[in-house]
């Protein structure tokens, strides 16, 4: 909200969607959109439908179902941000078949081996601070949009001051799957401020470009030397390693990055690992739990659980201290 309302009020979109339904082509909606957008357009008639719990009561009583995904003819609906991967994979399966959907599922680290892996914490320290936390997320062409958007979204829902900064010459970057992202600042301007936490998103091409940024390298070293918090997801853990910032630290690493010598201990099977002031994640579909782990460390489990509920995401069990 108010996005679903603005979609509802777009007459051109309404015509497109009604024509889609009339032609019996696939259409769908997620979160508040089934109730706020599709219902007023008359596109839920005699359709089994789900949606965000906060708006569930607005759906037609006898056709509303409390499932993460609901397919009813050409219509597919889902509950919220926390079910968006399932929603998208359902559409992929309907469009391309089960085999393609399974392949995409595995590439996103959603296959069985990554469904319920453990989260671990070592050398626990207090991350709480007496002001609104400031977080820097540096990005580049080729960064994983799933990670950039999810991390910044979850942290902002928790009332964190998030700065997304481009290491490119332009504020606009093109992410790994072609999504255009407009950042808040260029890295040079962002570097004029200090941050409580710096998070590097993954993506092979993006990680390579982040690693080449001299400004970012300086920021990370200063963060490390001052004992401040920093972390990485996916392939970007390699940046921290190459800059010498993971010595004797326990981490989790994106599967393809496990080869080669390291000076840190890789925790097998873990989705999120915290070691003192360093946090790492496998990335991709695991970054929601990564982000919620950060919220929990900064503010406590109550706020993390509240954010999780708004996302319609099952709040993970507490990190296992070691």
Automatic annotation (TrEMBL):
Transmembrane residue ranges: 26-44
Listed SUPFAM superfamilies: Class I glutamine amidotransferase-like (SSF52317)
Residue ranges occupied by any DJ-1/PfpI domain in the UniProt entry: 3-94, 134-296
Keywords: Membrane, Transmembrane, Transmembrane helix
Pfam family membership, one: DJ-1_PfpI
InterPro entries named in the record: Class_I_gatase-like, DJ-1, DJ-1/PfpI, Prot/Nucl_acid_deglycase
Name this polypeptide is given: Protein DJ-1 homolog C isoform X2
Organism: Camelina sativa (False flax)
């Amino acid at each position: 909200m108010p996005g679903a309302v603005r979609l509802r009020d777009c007459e051109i979109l309404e015509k497109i969607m009604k024509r889609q339904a009339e032609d019996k082509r696939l259409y769908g909606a997620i979160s508040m959109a089934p109730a706020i957008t599709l219902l007023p357009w008359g596109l839920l008639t005699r359709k089994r439908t789900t949606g965000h719990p906060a708006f569930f009561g607005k759906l037609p009583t006898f056709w509303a179902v409390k499932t993460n995904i609901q397919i009813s003819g050409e219509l597919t609906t889902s509950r919220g941000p926390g079910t968006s991967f399932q929603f998208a994979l359902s559409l992929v399966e309907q469009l391309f078949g089960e085999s393609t959907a399974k392949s995409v599922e595995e590439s996103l680290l959603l296959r069985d081996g990554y469904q319920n892996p453990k989260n671990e914490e070592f050398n626990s320290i207090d991350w709480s601070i007496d002001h609104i936390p400031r977080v820097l997320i540096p990005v580049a062409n080729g960064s994983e949009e799933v990670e950039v958007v999810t991390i910044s979204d979850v942290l902002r829902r928790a009332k964190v001051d998030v700065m997304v900064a481009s290491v490119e010459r332009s504020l606009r970057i093109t992410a790994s799957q072609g999504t255009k992202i407009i950042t808040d600042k260029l890295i040079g301007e962002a570097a004029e401020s200090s941050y409580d936490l710096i998070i590097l998103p993954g993506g092979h091409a993006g990680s390579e470009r982040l690693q080449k940024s001299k400004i970012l390298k300086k920021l990370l070293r200063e963060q490390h030397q001052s004992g401040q918090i920093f972390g990485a997801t996916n392939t970007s853990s390699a940046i921290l390693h190459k800059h010498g910032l993971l010595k004797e630290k326990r981490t989790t690493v994106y599967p393809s990055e496990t080869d080669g010598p390291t000076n840190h201990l890789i925790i097998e099977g873990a989705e999120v690992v915290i070691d003192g002031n360093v946090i790492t994640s496998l990335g991709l579909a695991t970054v929601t739990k990564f982000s919620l782990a950060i919220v929990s460390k900064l503010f406590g489990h109550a706020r993390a659980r509240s954010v999780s509920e708004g996302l319609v995401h099952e709040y993970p069990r507490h990190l296992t201290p070691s």
